[in-house]
Amino acid sequence: MKSFVIRWFVVAFVVVPLFAHAQASRPNSNDAAFSQGIQRNAAENQPAAGRRGSDMNSVPGNNPLNSLAGLGADYKIGANDLIDIEVYGLPELKRTVRVNSSGLVSLALVGNVQLLGLTAQQAEESIAKSYGEKYLQNPQVSVFIREFTTQRVTIEGAVARPGIYPLTGQITLLRAIALAGGGAQFADMTEIVVFRANDKGAQQAALFDLEKIRTGEMPDPAIQAEDVVVVRRDPKRTALRDSIFRDVIDAINPFSVFSR
């Protein structure tokens, strides 16, 4: 009995607190992923602004690679955004609605409400005013932006379909590359740079190895609104292609040597 009490005491007051401390001190995987990328970038290109994934998380005031975190309180609602609307104490008025092309949402009792260009807080105030005019006394309204399509990410370089893509919800680097059709010919998937502006407007860069992300050796960082993702070309393979192309031209046209 005595030995049982001693074991219970050790578990309750020694093992459990140590485990809790270890869990609390574990870093956020998203932040760590981007931090590793920038550190790698800095290590491989010392004088340059930053390289593989770690700088962006290590800079004070910088948002993690997370589309919802990057949304910000000043985000203005746009067409096609998906919004959750709740009125405290009245679950029957809860709605998940999509903003139409005119910026309107249709709500129970009050009909159409204009939300285009409003922040979430301003939308709450506008909806509360609409309900308060005829139906409710001092309604408490909450608005949560579930999906937003006016945010965007630019994917360019050696990808199949470079371009500017709307950001709807959360997306990781691996999914962003897949969205652009994957790597194009001569793409170097170990050299992917993510550019981002911090809160002060300064642009930073983080370098990622997609091959290691695919095998689980590196975490897959989330992409934030307005990020620019650049997939580099493999310079050795590109040089080899150019060399072979020149040899073919020379073989076909013996006078091409004089045009160099």
Structural class by sheet pairing and helices: alpha+beta
Q: Which quaternary structure do these chains form?
A: single chain
Any idea of the CATH topology of the largest domain?
Outer membrane lipoprotein wza fold like
Number of strands: 12
Coarse morphology: elongated
User: What proportion of the residues form beta strands (DSSP E)?
Assistant: 15-25%
The percent range for helix content is: 25-40%
CATH homology superfamily of the largest domain: Outer membrane lipoprotein wza domain like
Average predicted local confidence, pLDDT? 75
Radius of gyration: 26 Å
**Uncertain regions: pLDDT < 50 for 5+ in a row?**
14-27, 46-70, 256-260
Main sheet record: 5 strands, mixed
Keywords, please?
alpha+beta; Outer membrane lipoprotein wza fold like; 2 domains; five-stranded mixed sheet; three-stranded antiparallel sheet; 7 helices; 12 strands
List the helices and strands and how they pair.
Elements: H1 2-24, H2 29-44, H3 55-58, E1 82-87, E2 95-98, E3 104-107, E4 111-114, H4 120-134, E5 141-147, E6 152-157, E7 163-166, E8 171-172, H5 173-179, E9 187-197, E10 203-208, H6 210-214, E11 222-223, E12 228-233, H7 235-252
Parallel strand pairs: 6-12
Antiparallel strand pairs: 1-2, 1-5, 3-4, 6-7, 8-11, 9-10, 9-12
Structural overview:
By secondary structure, the chain is of the alpha+beta class. The chain folds into two domains: 141 residues, Roll (Outer membrane lipoprotein wza fold like); 66 residues, wza like fold, CATH 3.30.1950.10. Helices cover 34% and strands 24% of the residues. The chain is built from seven helices and twelve strands. The strands form four sheets. A five-stranded mixed β-sheet has the order 7-6-12-9-10. Strands 2-1-5 form a three-stranded antiparallel β-sheet, with helices on one face. A hairpin with a 3-residue loop joins strand 3 and strand 4. The longest helix has 23 residues. It is elongated, with a radius of gyration of 26 Å. It starts with a helix and ends in an 8-residue tail after the last helix. The C terminus is likely disordered.
